[in-house]
Amino acid sequence: MGGYYLKIYSGLFICTAYRGDEKRYHERAKMQQLIFQTTRRLKYANYYENDMHHTRISETVEPSVVNDIVVTLVICKPYNHVPQPHERRALRIKPYWRFRLRGETSLIEMHSLFKCSADYGTTMDAVEEIPKLTDLNMFKYPSSFIFIHDTFYVPQQFYVSEQTLAQLDTSKMTPMTDISLPIRKWMEKKKDLFGVVQVKDIAGVQVQDLVCMLGYPYVYVHQGSCEHVFYFTDLRLMDAQDYPISFPQMLSDTSFEHNCKICRRHVAQWIVEGEEMSADPVHMCEGCFTSYHFVYLHRRDLKSRAHPYVDPSCLQL
C-alpha cells in the first residue's frame, strides 16, 4: 500500500513518500547518507580546503623522478611550567599546527616553525614605554634546543630575517648558550636510566638525516622551561603531486587560544594585570584596551600593567 510518513534526522524534518519502488528507496538512502555526513566531525575537519581536495594522481601518469620523502610534523601546545595536581588530571597533548616536510627540508627551516606567544612578550609595562625589539623575550632569552631520539640539536647563532637583524643592536642582545648542558649533566648522573646522548649544531642537518620513530613524542625547549612537544607521522615517498610544491607546507591550524574577554568578538592583543579588572590577568583586544585605559590621548589613573600578547593563531600567518 502506498502512503506517506515523516522521518526526523538530526533535527531536520524530511517528508518522504513511500511508493514501494526501488528508485525512491535509493533516493532516501542517499538523503540519509548526506545528512549523516553533514552532522559528523570527520578526521580532516581542521585541514585546509586545498589539502582536503588534494587527490592522488592516476596510475597512467608516470611517477616522479624526485628521490625524496615527505613526512608530517605535528607541533603541540607548549607548556612553560610544571603542571599542578589539578592540571595533570585534565592534561592532554593538543596539536597546534601540522606541516608537511620533505626529506631535504633543513633543520633550520624546521626550527623556524616552532613559534610561541611567549617569544613576543615582555616583562615591562608596554603602555608606559614602547618596547624595543631587544626587549622581547625571544631576544632576551634566545637559546633553545631540539631533542630527537638521542641527540640535542642546538643552534649556535640567530636565525632571523635580514630586515629584523638590521634593526637589532647586537651589543645589547643576550649571547647564545647551550641550555641543554644542565640536562645532559643530570642524565650522566643517571646512566642506568639514560643512554649516551649527542650534541650537534642544527646547521647542515636535514630531515632525512634524523633518526626518529613515527608517533613518538620529542621536544623543543626555549626560554629555559617552555616545552613544545612534537612528533612525526605519515611518512611516504614523494610523488608527482608533491612536486613542485613549496615546503614546509602548512596542513592545519587549530591553535586559537584567547579572544577578548570584554567584547568576546576579536582576538586578544593585550594581557592586563590589575585589581580593577574583573579577572587578573585578563585578555583584551586593541579596541577594548584603548577605550578602557585612555580618554582621548590621556591615560586614566589605573593601577594596572599591560603586556603585548600575540595569539598562537596569528603566529603562522
From TrEMBL:
Annotated localization: Nucleus
InterPro entries in UniProt: snRNA-activating_su3
MF (Gene Ontology): bent DNA binding; core promoter sequence-specific DNA binding; RNA polymerase II cis-regulatory region sequence-specific DNA binding; RNA polymerase III type 3 promoter sequence-specific DNA binding
Main location, first listed in the record: nucleus
Pfam families found in the cross-reference section: SNAPC3
Cellular component GO terms, alphabetical: nucleus; snRNA-activating protein complex
Keywords carried by this UniProt record: DNA-binding, Nucleus, Transcription, Transcription regulation
Coiled-coil regions listed: none
GO biological process, one term: snRNA transcription by RNA polymerase III
Keyword presence, DNA-binding: yes
Family, as annotated: Belongs to the SNAPC3/SRD2 family.
Function in brief: Part of the SNAPc complex required for the transcription of both RNA polymerase II and III small-nuclear RNA genes. Binds to the proximal sequence element (PSE), a non-TATA-box basal promoter element common to these 2 types of genes. Recruits TBP and BRF2 to the U6 snRNA TATA box.
Known partners and oligomeric status: Part of the SNAPc complex composed of 5 subunits: SNAPC1, SNAPC2, SNAPC3, SNAPC4 and SNAPC5. SNAPC3 interacts with SNAPC1.
Name of the protein described by the UniProt record: snRNA-activating protein complex subunit 3
